[in-house]
Sequence to fold (386 residues):
Amino acid sequence: MKTKLFMKAKLFTIFAVFVFALTSCSDDDDNPIGGATELTVFNGNITGDAIVSGSTINLTGPTYVKEGATLTIPAGTTITATTEGTSAFILVERGAKIIAKGTASAPIKFTSSTQRSGSWGGLIINGYAPLSRPTEASASTGQTEISPNILYGGSDAADNSGELDYIIIEYSGANINDAAEHNGLTLNGVGNGTKISNIFIKDGADDAIEFFGGSVNVTNLLVVNSEDDMFDFTQGYTGTLTNSYGIWEAGFTTNEADPRGIEADGNLDGVNPSDVAQSNFTIDGMTIVNRSTTASGIMQDIVKIRRGATATITNLLIETNAQFTDIIDFTDNAGAGNANSNITYTFSPESLFNEALVKAQGATITRNATQTGANTSVFAWTGYTF
Fold:
């Protein structure tokens, strides 16, 4: 009798575990992949903690990591967008996290099956960190470019959206409409509790990286052949970018109207010049190189700080041919100039330097031949030849 009772109890326990497992992995129309703990494809809503299964995974449609969920991508994983344009991207929403920690020998790669610029929508991370806004008491939120129903921003400067380390992002920059495009890496209101380091973004159709407000810090960033801006800051960004290198190679072409090395706005698109908490960021160690010899390889400005933005930039090295309009330009700022901005840089070759192309409008701009720019040795893991 005891044996039979024991066997019945054991069978009941196994059955209960089996039912629980089926329930935990069930899908529904609103949660196509969120219930699973292992992902074999990116497409739909991830609503629970999930980890990529296998070393390769396809991105076949819009993918949203929903609030409360954590997406983990192991070192060495390759994510390939097989669907083109705005229907292929990964968006980490406010209150969600992405943990993508590659290594120097096993980086994580986001790529496209077509291997051409502008073929997918890149990686977008939304956080609860502050943005520029009409008053201190105003709501500090913005609408994600792909949908007005997905918000970013808030009041937590230390918000944590996870970690990115040893990441490659290539062939991104899909066009949303005439006023908005995807970037390689878009950081919307991301807080400084988020860790981002060792990032390589190449062959993108729009900006390589854009900061929409927030306070996140980024270390060791390499940008190669971005068709619009290399480094873009707007809407009240207050973090620090450390050790960054951006380059246009000799055969590079672009159809963008006003590409830049650095573009910075104090408020979103300059439409709210009286905003409080406008962009006030730091760049420490940066090299911007333009080797393009093509007719379209003309950089509008190498550095453009405008619309109320304040920047402190130290150890900036500019290496360029004659393909630029201005070297450093502050002249489009709202209000009474930029007395709080400070840039220390060097320019090469000296034979192309023109003092008239440095427009300070109150900023302190110092040309100093001892500036060395970014430390390129930390980018050895990318295999890029400088």
Summary: The chain has one domain: 34-382. Residues 1-34 have pLDDT under 50 and may be disordered. Helices lie at 2-24.
